[in-house]
Amino acid sequence: MNLAEAIRSAVWSLQSNKLRSFLSMLGIIIGVAAVVGIVSIGLGAQASVLDRVSALGSNLIMISPAPTLGRGASVSTDAREVFTVELAQYMEERAPSMKRVVPQVQTSGLLLYEGTNLRASMVGTTPAYKDVTNYEVRAGRFLHELDVDQSTPVMVLGSRAAERLFGEADPLGEQLTFVVGDRRYSFTVVGVMESKGQVFMGNYDSQVYVPLSFVMERILRTNTVSTLMAQAVSAAEAGAAVQQAEFLLASRLGTTDGFTITSQDEMLETMGEVAFTLQLMLGAIGGISLLVGGIGVMNIMLVSVSERTREIGTRKALGAKYRDLLLQFLVESLVLSTSGGALGLILGALIANAVSRFGDWPASIELPALAVAFGFSALVGLVAGVYPAMQAAKLDPVVALSYE
Questions:
Q1: Residue 1 has what pLDDT?
Q2: Domain locations in the chain?
């Protein structure tokens, strides 16, 4: 028996037992669909996260006081006191590899507008924030230097915050009230930002932006900032910018333990590793489903060998060799598993597309992932078919022909 005859025989055998063949393929279909769906959604999510980190800004470096280890995990007092607006100016002047250093503080409260309220995060910052973070204005303007110099009560809304408070109405020039505890502050809306989305540092679209001086002096009543956002002159200078920041901060604090510096490359690397690990874990779950499907294929093939014992005996009596029967049942197992694998690829791709379209979750269907899933289904079928094929090939023709 050659390969073509073995394939024809396998297809005929599967077609003659359609329901049983489908049920035996079901485990393979589910396993491959799970692998393809999970990996596609994982790849899409990974690409989306990395894109959003890249969209944070160009050559971004985050500098903040480091939490001290131990009970309470409070921020080092010395480090916190050093993080001031003056420090940002000092670093910008003395670090040649840094283009800008933007101080910022954050607080949260309740935004009120004509009966509508919204819990929001407020970012106090300077006009350079927009350039460092590659954040574009959709309507109106961003903060001006004069706003910071005069602590002007103006506010720029993230796109989602504007939508939640105003819907389709134009918010420019409207008065908002920001409530923190028992204190109320009135702001005039001067701008709305383009949508930027969620990143691990927070949702830009749900934040509101006001002059740094107003938040520090009137709301938080502090002279320290929470974070410095620095921008390197170029990608090639990013490493040097980090080293210069470390040197300048260490010279102020007398230690390198009071602060953390994270470059954009480090953010990308960390997020990529997390996404890849999660993808592997979820893919392994799909792989387990495939193995379970392989066990189902083996069971069905053993049943098939038992049911076709007389057929096997007849073929052996007519001159079929060990390798002929081995090939026949191996090919049958492969056809079964690869058919299930093909259906699983289609189902997995449909699931990934459905999740992407209706669940607002990115998915990326890539040919290498499809090839690996299909190849693994074929391998599972081959391994699952070895033992039943050997059992069939070893049958004694006399015993097989007398089998009832």
A1: 55
A2: 3-52+270-401, 67-257
